[in-house]
Specification:
Blueprint (H helix, E strand, L loop, with lengths): L8 H10 L18 E9 L4 E6 L8 E2 L1 E2 L11 E6 L7 E6 L15 E6 L2 E6 L2 E6 L2 E6 L4 E4 L22
Length: 173
C-alpha cells in the first residue's frame, strides 16, 4: 500500500467532508466490513489530529478520514494500522492499534528521546538533552550539563523550615 502520491489540500478538504461523522446513512449490507482490517496510515491532517488511511479492499482509491483510539505522530505515517469500522461502515474507520514490526519501528534517533514513568508516590521524567516545563510566561529548563534556569514574572520560594541556597558562589542582583 505504500508509494501513493501525496494528497493535495483540496483533496483533503473533500475527503473530510465525505467522511465526516455526521454522515449517518447506513452502508449497503454488501459493503459492510466486520472484523479486523489492516490498512496504512498515509497522512495526518488538521495539525496532526486527523488520520487518513487506505486499506484493501476499499471502494475508492482515495485516502479516508479515520478516528483513532491511539496517539499517532508523523513518525507513524506509512505504518500498518489495525482498524475496525463503526457500524460496519467502510467510510468510518477507527484505528485501534499499530501493527508491530520493522516497518513500524520508531526511528532509532528518537528512541529514549523522552521517557515518562509514573507510578506510586514518585514521577520521573527523563530527557537526553533538555527538559522544559512551560506555562504562560513561566518556565523551568533543565539541561544535561547540569544547568538549571527558572524564569517567571515573579519567583517565590517558601519553606516551613530552613530555606537554603548552596553553590560555589551566590550572587544577589
Amino acid at each position: 500500500m505504500s508509494g501513493r502520491d501525496p494528497l493535495a489540500s483540496a483533496d483533503l478538504a473533500h475527503l473530510a467532508a465525505l467522511a465526516s461523522p455526521s454522515n449517518d446513512s447506513p452502508p449497503d449490507a454488501s459493503l459492510r466490513r466486520h472484523g479486523l482490517v489492516v490498512g496504512e496510515l498515509v497522512a495526518l491532517v488538521d495539525s496532526g489530529r486527523v488520520p487518513l488511511v487506505v486499506f484493501d479492499p476499499q471502494t475508492d482509491t482515495a485516502a479516508i478520514v479515520a478516528r483513532s483510539l491511539i496517539d499517532l505522530t508523523r513518525h507513524h505515517m506509512g505504518s500498518a494500522v489495525a482498524m475496525l469500522f463503526e457500524n460496519g461502515d467502510p467510510a468510518r474507520p477507527v484505528i485501534i492499534g499499530l501493527l508491530q514490526g520493522a516497518s513500524n519501528a520508531v526511528p532509532q534517533s528518537l528512541v529514549g528521546e523522552v521517557e515518562l514513568e509514573a507510578g506510586g508516590a514518585r514521577m520521573v521524567v527523563t530527557a537526553r538533552e533538555t527538559l522544559v516545563l512551560r506555562c504562560g510566561k513561566s518556565s523551568i529548563t533543565l539541561a544535561a550539563d547540569g544547568q538549571i534556569e527558572i524564569r517567571g514574572e515573579g519567583i517565590v520560594t517558601q519553606a516551613a523550615r530552613a530555606n537554603r541556597i548552596r553553590g560555589g558562589s551566590v550572587e544577589l542582583n
